[in-house]
Design brief:
Elements lengths: L1 E4 L12 E4 L9 E10 L2 H8 L14 E9 L11 E4 L2 E2 L5 H4 L10 E2 L14 E5 L3 E3 L6 H21 L7 E4 L5 H12 L3 E6 L2 H10 L3 E4 L5 H8 L5 E6 L6 H6 L1 E9 L12 H6 L3 E4 L5 H12 L7 E6 L4 H8 L6 E5 L4
Parallel strand pairs: 10-11, 10-13, 11-12, 13-14, 14-15, 16-17
Antiparallel strand pairs: 1-2, 3-4, 3-8, 3-17, 4-5, 5-9, 6-7
Helix pairs in contact: 3-4, 3-9
Length: 349
């Protein structure tokens, strides 16, 4: 089979990511073999190629968002059949610890992000891949493979951030940072699903306009020096209830200052850096909640698949790349020249 493999780290994906011929993987008793129809890109694909912030197994196949058709199953697989259309749940956990058995598999100490931390040669950018039965979810016939791949990671993580961690409820004011990203696009739509007043941010006028079309009630440019003052004005100086954060150092202090009394900031990333300052007096006196979040539950992904199939959440795809040119997607993601998700289709090679 063909797979996108890199055998060393480099800041330029074009120098290390190559389409190679490798063996079709052999599955274990509890696993399913998937003919991959679509894979979407995530920022962790770049982290893997760069070899930072964490080390990963080499040689490596990236790709955490995969959809396709099951073509083989292990003898202990009970609920998935050959021929079924599925999407992967990329949160690999032990399934037996206290956190897992109490519904918090995202806190499992053995948790790994499939397609990022796994390997060698175990990820989604390939014509065939495999996952444990518990990490695949059936998708309805009216949900395309490309849409399923595009919404799975960002949708699941955004649902986890807003619903599981921030306890979103109708009528709140929610600030979605980076509304033009895959995460932000999902965040806007989930917040509107809960009938919240949504303020989004984006870095260009085009992205700002698209955030409004997605359902955001207001949008500001977070590249402007006084962006946070504009957000505060939109709330009549009351502040916001929830901040959906994945940008990090460059905006973090200003974000915290926008929270109202008892407000919640939930963060899942820091693409501009992890080193940030926090006024502890402000945190204490206003009773703020600063919460971390990563990945999400299988149940959360099932909710996202359900609402996407019903048209309540839309998978926004920026570009679909032929597999032989898939590395171009890494470059586009590095340069932030996109609105929505990037997809590649290995079977069309």
């Amino acid at each position: 089979m063909k797979a996108a493999v890199y055998r060393e780290h480099n800041k330029d994906p074009r120098k290390v990511v190559k389409i190679e011929d490798i063996e079709i993987p052999k599955i274990k008793d509890n696993q399913v073999l998937i003919k991959v129809e679509a894979v979407s890109y995530n920022y962790n694909d770049l982290w893997g190629i760069w070899g930072e912030p964490i080390k990963i197994p080499l040689p490596h196949i990236s790709g955490s968002d995969v959809s396709g058709t099951v073509i083989d199953i292990g003898e202990n697989v009970l609920h998935i059949k050959k021929g079924e259309r599925v999407v992967g749940h990329p949160n690999l956990t032990c399934r037996i610890c206290n956190e897992c058995t109490s519904g918090k598999e995202y806190d499992c100490s053995q948790r790994q992000v499939w397609g990022f931390q796994t390997g060698p040669l175990w990820g989604g950018f390939a014509q065939y891949t495999y996952l444990p039965e518990v990490n695949v979810i059936k998708i309805p016939d009216n949900l395309s493979f490309q849409d399923a791949a595009a919404i799975s990671m960002v949708g699941m993580t955004s649902w986890h951030m807003l619903v599981t961690r921030a306890n979103i409820h109708p009528g709140q004011t929610v600030l979605i940072m980076g509304g033009g990203s895959g995460m932000g696009i999902a965040g806007i739509q989930i917040a509107k699903l809960f009938n919240c007043d949504v303020i989004a941010t984006a870095g260009t006028q085009d992205k700002m306009d698209k955030c409004i079309k997605l359902g955001a009630d207001h949008v500001v440019n977070h590249r402007e020096p006084n962006w946070y003052k504009k957000v505060r004005n939109l709330t009549n100086n009351q502040g916001v209830d929830i901040i959906f954060e994945h940008i990090g150092k460059s905006v973090f202090a200003e974000e915290v200052s926008l929270l109202n009394m008892g407000g919640t900031l939930v963060s899942t990333g820091a693409t501009t850096g992890y080193d940030s300052k926090l006024d502890l007096g402000y945190l204490i006196l206003r009773g703020l909640n600063i919460i971390g979040a990563t990945q999400g539950t299988r149940a959360g992904l099932e909710k996202v698949v359900k609402w996407t199939s019903k048209g309540k959440i839309k998978a926004i795809i920026d570009t679909v790349y032929p597999f032989e040119d898939m590395v171009t997607g890494h470059i586009k993601m590095m340069e932030s020249r996109l609105f929505g998700k990037l997809i590649t289709t290995p079977q069309k090679l």
